[in-house]
Amino acid sequence: MELGELYRNDPTYFIPQGNCPTSPLIVGKTIADLVLAKAPYKVRYAVPTMPVAGVNAPITPSGTAVIGVAEILGGYVLAKSLNPETPVAATALSSRLDMKTGEIIYISPDVFTADVAISELFKRHLNLPCSLFGTYIDAKIPGMQAVYEKVMRSLGLGLCGNLSGFQGTLNQGKVFSYTQLMLDCDTHNMVAEYTDEPVVDEESLAVEEILDIGWDSHGYLMSELTIKHMGNVWQSQIYRSSAEEEEKILARAKDKWKENLKKYEPPNHSDDFLKSLRSIVNRAEKFFS
Question: Of 71, 128, 224, 287, which is most buried by a Cβ count within 10 Å?
Answer without folding.
Answer: 71
